Amino acid sequence: MKITLKDGSVKEYSHPLSVYEIAQDISEGLARVACVGEVNGEVVDLRTVVDRDSEVSILTFDSDAGKKAYRHTCAHVLAEAVQQVFPEAKLAIGPAIDNGFYYDFDLKPLDRSDLDRIEAAMKKIIKKGDRLEYYTLSREEALKLMEERQEPYKVELINDLPEDATISFYQQGDFIELCAGPHLMSTKQIKAFKLTSTSGAYWRGDEHNKMLTRIYGTAFTKKADLEEYLEYLADIKNRDHNRLGREMELFTTADVIGQGLPLIMPKGAKIIQKLQRWIEDTEDYEWGYVRTKTPLMAKSALYKISDHWYHYKDGMFVFGYEDKEQLNSAAEAERQIHGVEDLSLIENDADSNVYALRPMTCPFQYYVYKATQKSYRDLPYRMGETSTLFRNEDSGEMHGLTRVRQFTISEGHLVCTPEQIDQEFKNCVALAKYCLTTLGLEEDVTYRFSKWNPDNADKYLGTAEEWDKVENAMKVILDEIGLEYTEEKGEAAFYGPKLDIQAKNVYGKEDTMITIQLDMFLAERYDMYYIDKDGSKKRPYIIHRTSIGCYERTLAWLIEKYAGKFPTWLCPEQVRVLPVSEKYEDYAQEVFRELRRNGVDVTVDNSAERLGYKLRQAQMDRLPYMLVVGAKEEEDRTVSVRSRFAGDEGVKPLGEFVNQICEEIRTKEIRKEIRK
Fold it and tell me: Fewer CB near the last or first residue (10 Å), C or N of the chain?
């Protein structure tokens, strides 16, 4: 038997060996740190026996597969420890995830003291160093074992496995876990771990199922690496917009108002106002958009014409009907709607007086376009709107400002001739990149080409030929731009492919921030046309796009990016004037008025506190600038400038400082802090 190793060398053996035994033959040191193996490109357990010529790699914690097995083993140790500390706990699932692992238990909610008790039990299990033994059982034997151990969630998982599935278990001491592996050879290999948090989680992610208790943790091979990661966790916790945004009084929530309906407080509203004014002015004066303002709701007929009703109704806030069963039964019968030519069929149906809050703006803006006849000379016709939208998100999906039920978006629709679509799409990408660059976020995004899924064609309008045509055209555009992007099957809108600009929050969860979509169907469904050069009616192409995306989500992104220390132009309070005593309040007010007259957001701290306290408070409030004024400053008409960027910036004439900060705001400079 010939075994080809990763470095190309070949070892010959006269009999079958496990991957672990091959690692031992290479080096005892390698075997001690081995986590899993790779045989002919497949990640396998170290216990896997190799009995024929193969390519074999020994994977340590330095590999992704090694980390996953190491942390998955730690999840098993966690499960054993939980059942020692809380014998009533029932096991659900416990996978490895990015940077750690979690395990879900049917158990009461836990606090930090509970996690500390579990950690102590885990350390004893690791010190004991039980080997993990792998074995398989028939379906009947597996069900009997889990029923005897009173593990209902494992029984459910076994029953859901395919008939031909291999049902495998790992056992360490008396602890038995239904698991496919792979795992470490022994619990003793785990060197450094920490349980980081606990939360609630619905069984199988379904809000209709029971709420379980989830425990998160992480594990490393070195204590120093663990400590470095815990410091990183502390930093991202301090950046978490859901905590920091409330602490800074940017937004809040109230149960009596409802989940996913945040209250944007004055400081947060000021930031969103600045973003909105910037985007609207940029779109209108620099990119040729016209501004619309359309209703927040519409009759069901509007959404049926486009097919949105059938794709999005479950996620819409629908009202105005008495019999929900009748509404749902009517929906399937009307699925054959092809556009406005079928309007007479849907205006008199059972739910003709049903209304819905809008989850998108496109159908409304189409009627703005249709209000007057357009010729090819009027195109491209670029409509922009600061749109408030509503989506009935699942309660388990809601989080801070990133996933809400009411949000505001920089929405736009461009109606183009076929010849214009290439350049207009490129312009939409350029506008989005300009916005990202201005906000300092351009390095934090990735690009995703979201395509249709031909295996689920019923989800989409149109034919395979039409989808292939538009996706190929979009790919050419993206390649000409020079974007680095991934392709994702099944993420397209039902009416066309899109470019999604993705970003991750501090915890690594990815969200779509900006979207640019090609639409090849809805113009026909809404009977949109333009008069071409030859006098004939032609169907336009449509681009759906955002320039900055959702304002609430963008605010969350900015909070986490800058840890609340926003660029000066975005700060709700840009300058605070600090008179050294009440004698200089008149001059402080004079400074205030001059800055205010020049459009600077400024306040005066007239409190009776000492100057040192005022300065510390301003720093804690993450202000860009503090202006100290006293006798000398009043006499010379100057200000003593302190900033979060450079500390003491010295005394400057008031006019000079006003010009300086106004230029910084006008150019939207992102000034860096100088480390001392």
Answer: C
Alpha helices in 455-582 (DSSP H): 464-481, 522-525, 551-562
Asked if 431 and 287 count as a contact pair (C-beta separation under 8 A), the reply is yes
Identify any residues that bridge with 408 across adjacent strands, giving them in sequence order. Answer: 388
Burial 630-669 (b: 16+ CB within 10 A, else e): beebbeeebbbbbbbeeeebeebebeebbeebeebbeebe
Q: Which helix (H) or strand (E) holds 394?
A: none
Q: What are residue 199's DSSP bridge partners? A: 214
Dihedral of alpha carbons 220, 222, 227, 232, sign: negative
Strand 575-579 vs strand 602-604: parallel, antiparallel, or unpaired?
parallel
- What is the C-alpha to C-alpha distance for residues 423 and 380, in angstroms, rounded to an integer? 10
Q: Is there a contact between 22 and 1 (Cβ–Cβ < 8 Å)?
A: no
Six token digits for residue 305:
């014409």
Cβ atoms of residues 39 and 23 within 8 Å: no
SS3 166: coil
Angle of CA points 143, 148, 151, to nearest 5°: 70
Q: At 594, which helix (H) or strand (E)? A: helix 585-597
| Kind and range of the H or E run holding 424 | helix 421-439
Place of tokens 């709700």: 572
Cα 623 to Cα 598: distance, rounded to the nearest angstrom? 18
CA contacts within 13 A on the Cβ side of 641: 21
Q: What is the mean pLDDT of each run of 10 residues along the chain (676 residues)?
A: 87 90 91 92 91 90 95 97 96 93 96 96 95 94 95 95 92 94 94 94 87 96 95 89 95 94 97 98 97 95 86 85 52 57 64 85 96 97 97 83 95 96 97 97 95 89 90 95 94 92 88 93 93 96 95 96 96 97 95 97 95 95 97 96 96 97 98 79
Q: Indicate the Cα dihedral angle 485, 491, 497, 503, nearest 10°.
A: -40
C-alpha–C-alpha distance, residues 184 and 78, integer Å: 15
What are the beta bridge partners of residue 648?
642
What residues have CB less than 8 Å from 358, skipping those under 6 apart? 295, 296, 297, 298, 364, 387, 389, 390
